[in-house]
Design a protein that fits this description.
CATH architecture of the largest domain: Sandwich
Distance between the termini: 15 Å
Oligomer: single chain
Strand content: 25-35%
Number of strands: 23
Number of domains: 2
Largest sheet: 6 strands, antiparallel
């Protein structure tokens, strides 16, 4: 976790066998009423961690462009009457390893069953707008848990939490789907023994990169600010520390796959050595928005 002014960002993994309910995260405007922060996020599907798709490797994003407030009003009125059929107004996107989705506050989405790396603003404010998912009931408390008490029976308030422009965007895929973007020309990085890509970018709250050090190579990596890091593949050294991606973690066992790099060290440059003659050393880095 890294702190910027009065708020923080961090990253996490979620690995769900089944899809999650259709939900949204609240914006700063709405969370200010309950003394919390909003939650923008991004979803990245690492190639190293997605050798199995789970039960449903599709995510429902947003609403069909022709959807009206009255359509979703009817779904919310039927929340306690079984399946409220809110998926009738959305569409599913197939998930692909090595790609990213930008997920701003107010966007309804139901994450599929890929293992997901999620850089985000450090908050967990949400509302579950789907009453039945994967044949499991979603309690109404999860719909209104971050709504002011006096507004919890107001369907209009719940409708106002939805960012209608983002959800009904006819060019949603164009605006929210991301492919990794190289930080330097590939030839230049290859000569220096590494490849690095922006995997979460364009947010005012966070960013993330994927760094690969080629087998047997030693590189010096410099960044503008502090960052957190997790190792996905391979082994080597990071500065003076030994690092490796664990193949199995037992209860209570320590690992050598997570690090935090301070501003001074990041700016001066960290020497990273890939100790393998054949295996790539792959790391994910979560940073601030200015990175």
């Amino acid at each position: 976790m890294r702190k910027f002014g009065g708020w923080t960002m961090y990253s996490k993994f979620f690995d769900n066998l089944e899809p999650l309910p259709f939900h949204l995260h609240l914006s700063d405007e709405h969370t200010a009423r309950i003394g919390r922060a909003g939650k923008p996020e991004a979803y990245y599907f690492s190639r190293q961690l997605n050798n199995h798709p789970g039960l449903f490797c599709y995510t429902f994003f947003g609403l069909n462009p022709e959807t009206t407030r009255d359509d979703i009003r009817a779904c919310l009125r039927n929340f306690d009457r079984g399946d409220n059929r809110i998926f009738d107004f959305s569409r599913a996107c197939r998930l692909t390893p090595g790609t990213v989705w930008d997920v701003p506050p107010g966007l309804l989405n139901a994450p599929g069953s890929f293992l997901t790396y999620e850089p985000q603003k450090a908050s967990d404010v949400y509302g579950m707008y789907q009453s039945l998912t994967w044949n499991k009931h979603v309690p109404r408390e999860l719909l209104v848990k971050d709504v002011p008490v006096e507004q919890r029976d107001s369907i209009d308030y719940l409708l106002d939490l939805i960012d209608w422009d983002v959800n009904r965007d006819p060019d949603f895929h164009k605006h929210r789907f991301r492919v990794p973007m190289q930080v330097k020309p590939l030839e230049e990085m290859a000569q220096d023994g590494f490849a690095e890509y922006h995997i979460a970018y364009g947010s005012e709250s966070f960013s993330a990169r994927e760094l690969t050090v080629f087998p047997g190579r030693t590189v010096t990596i410099r960044d503008a600010g502090a960052y957190g890091l997790i190792v996905l593949q391979g082994h080597g050294t990071f500065g003076t520390l030994a690092i490796e991606a664990p193949t199995m973690i037992r209860y209570g066992q320590m690992t050598s796959d997570e690090l935090f790099v301070r501003v001074k060290a990041a700016q001066e440059g960290v020497i990273i050595v890939n100790r393998s003659a054949t295996d790539e050393l792959v790391m994910l880095k979560h940073l601030g928005p200015e990175a």
